[in-house]
Amino acid sequence: MRRATGGVRRAGRVQLARARATESPRGVAYSPWLVAPAPGGACTGAVVAAPNKVTGGGKIDPSNDASALDTVLELATFLVSSSSNSSSVGGQATFGLSVTCCPAKGNLEYDDHSADVRIKATSVTSLTVSQPSGACPTVPGGKHAQFMGSALQNGTSVTYTVDVDDCGEPGSAGSMPDRFKIQTSGGYFAEGNLIAGNIQIH
Predict the structure, then answer these.
(1) Residue 140 and residue 163: Cα distance in Å, rounded?
(2) Which of 2, 44, 102, 105 is 20 to 30 A from 125, alpha carbon to alpha carbon?
(3) Which of 80, 98, 72, 59 has the alpha carbon at shortest distance from 180?
(4) Contact, 49 vs 160, CB < 8 A?
């Protein structure tokens, strides 16, 4: 990928135009954000032996390299069961994520359509993976992952924590679907079960 050495304002306008050109009908610019170089950071380690990788989306192009990020081609959807914004409850939110460790690096983009909250990660500072998953403790192979970092929430800088549970394949089917939760220092949180897409914790 080429990097501009000058013309910062012009480059910013070009990037914005590209983002708008690749927005989905819901307005989430999810491509090509996941194929850009990922921000890196320190890794806190994990209960499950490293390296670890977590992906979430509607369609994922996996990498054969355990230390490389997978590419999310489509977003996953979950039904918001609990949120800091009452207008979100019962609505849908979409997300795409790809995180690996160690060192921790990755990408996250999130859109709560009912509350008009958009969150885009600017860094991933830690990733922890544990087993079994508290959301589905009786499911063989069920895992839980938590990652943290910094992000922009509707353009404002915040810190975030994301918790995801991989309860089986496919993640949006069965009696125990995969689960997604996000909370930020801006006072926002939402969680719920997937109704489309999948979360995979390796």
Answers:
(1) 19
(2) 2
(3) 80
(4) no
Residues ≥6 apart with Cβ < 8 Å to 68: 100
* pTM, full prediction: 0.76
Q: pLDDT tens-digit profile of 58-115?
A: 887 888 777 778 888 899 999 999 999 999 999 999 999 999 988 899 999 999 999 9
Tokens 């990733």, located at residue: 127
Read off the pLDDT of residues 108-139 as tens digits, 9 standing for 90 and up. 999 999 999 999 999 999 999 998 888 888 88
Name the band, by pLDDT with cuts 50, 70 and 90, for residue 51. Answer: low
Q: What's the token pair of residue 130? A: 């544990």
Contacts of 45 (CB under 8 A, 6+ apart): 102, 128
Non-local (6+) Cβ contacts of 116 within 8 A are 154
- Check: CB of residue 98 under 8 Å from CB of residue 71: yes
Q: Burial level of 43, CB count in 10 A (0-12/13-18/19+)?
A: buried
Cβ neighbours of residue 192 under 8 Å, at least 6 residues apart?
78, 79, 80, 81, 82, 93, 179, 180, 181
Taking a C-beta distance cutoff of 8 angstroms, is the pair 178, 169 a contact? no
